[in-house]
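re: the backbone from monday

yeah here it is again, tokenized this time
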């Protein structure tokens, strides 16, 4: 008698709308997953101080606020929970920031975040995944997916791959089940999982469309983020103004989080949807679709093996006919012509004579002697 496998429990991060609808249709048709959909963090919600503080509380970086407190729309204390019983530590036993430290950190993060423009979406993505990780741990759901993940069309095939990869790497802290990568990783990858190495200071794989992070690694990440604002929103550098958030796919494989125990599933459980317009860096969509094409060829899969929307199938058909990757949503981005800057006037050094003193070009001070 054949054994019936339980569905793979997952958390899906989405910003609702058509992307969520497509993801729900996909999971229903391919089967094998029991998914809990949670709403991500809209970038525009971080434009206000209350929105930013609320996100910090909801993700567990800041202590949940009592009802009526700052940022009380999310992350409230529920009577009877560990947070309410032991206000000095969270449910994992990690110490909260004290009230004064939290206030200073909130003020500094708010000031820094005001300089963000498109990078505010990167910060929102970090918060969304931290929230998903918290939900996944509390509900015992090992897999986290984004609504841009595309699974194998064969019913149950992706769930079987996920189960096989998880069973093969029980000690891995961060396991990428869906990712993008360069040729270097694909040439060395072995089935069912392969160690993730670094190239030129960066992990050889990127993306968070499908992954697993062990609970202890999430605790290490939260503890690190509580150390100071530089961890979450560091300065760009000495010669650059402003601040730049650390992307989530750089935080999760970091040594202080994954402790060098990172791996990728090969072949992947999921792939990024071709030319689905990114909410953060749409200028890279074509390059990522080219990398996806090479990745599919290396793994033995193809676009024909994936569950795709009708729009995405038209995008793939156009690429096969014309050899060009283009978005299929009909939206055309036209860059504004940048206003020319006024030429800078050369700086004139102030001479010593202007201050009444002597110098190489001037004589002695008239009052220096009789």
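seq for it, each position gets an aa:
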């Amino acid at each position: 008698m054949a054994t019936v496998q339980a569905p793979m429990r997952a958390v899906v991060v989405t910003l609702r709308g058509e992307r969520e609808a497509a993801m729900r249709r996909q999971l229903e048709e391919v089967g094998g997953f029991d998914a809990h959909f949670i709403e991500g963090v809209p970038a525009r919600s971080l434009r206000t101080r209350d929105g930013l503080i609320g996100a910090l509380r909801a993700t567990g970086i800041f202590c949940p606020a009592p009802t009526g407190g700052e940022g009380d729309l999310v992350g409230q204390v529920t009577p009877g929970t560990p947070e309410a019983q032991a206000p000095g530590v969270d449910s994992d036993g990690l110490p909260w920031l004290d009230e004064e430290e939290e206030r200073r950190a909130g003020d500094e993060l708010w000031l820094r975040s005001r300089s963000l423009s498109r990078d505010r979406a990167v910060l929102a993505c970090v918060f969304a995944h931290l929230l998903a990780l918290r939900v996944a741990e509390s509900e015992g759901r090992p897999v986290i997916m984004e609504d841009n993940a595309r699974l194998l069309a064969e019913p149950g095939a992706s769930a079987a791959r996920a189960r096989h990869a998880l069973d093969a790497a029980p000690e891995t802290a961060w396991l990428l089940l869906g990712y993008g990568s360069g040729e270097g990783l694909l040439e060395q990858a072995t089935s069912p999982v392969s160690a993730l190495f670094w190239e030129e200071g960066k992990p050889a794989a990127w993306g968070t469309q499908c992954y697993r992070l062990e609970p202890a690694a999430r605790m290490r990440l939260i503890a690190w983020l509580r150390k100071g604002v530089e961890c979450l929103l560091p300065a760009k550098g000495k010669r650059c103004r402003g601040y730049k958030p650390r992307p989530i796919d750089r935080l999760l494989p970091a040594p202080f989080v994954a402790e060098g125990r990172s791996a990728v599933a090969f072949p992947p459980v999921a792939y990024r949807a071709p030319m689905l317009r990114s909410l953060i860096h749409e200028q890279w969509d074509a390059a990522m679709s080219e990398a996806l094409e090479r990745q599919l060829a290396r793994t033995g899969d193809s676009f024909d093996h994936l569950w795709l929307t009708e729009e995405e199938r038209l995008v793939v058909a156009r690429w096969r006919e014309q050899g060009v990757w283009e978005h299929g949503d009909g939206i055309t981005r036209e860059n504004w012509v940048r206003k020319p800057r006024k030429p800078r006037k050369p700086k004139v050094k102030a001479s010593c004579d202007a201050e009444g003193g002597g110098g190489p070009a001037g004589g002695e001070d008239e009052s220096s002697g009789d």
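The longest strand covers residues 205-213. The chain has a mean pLDDT of 86.
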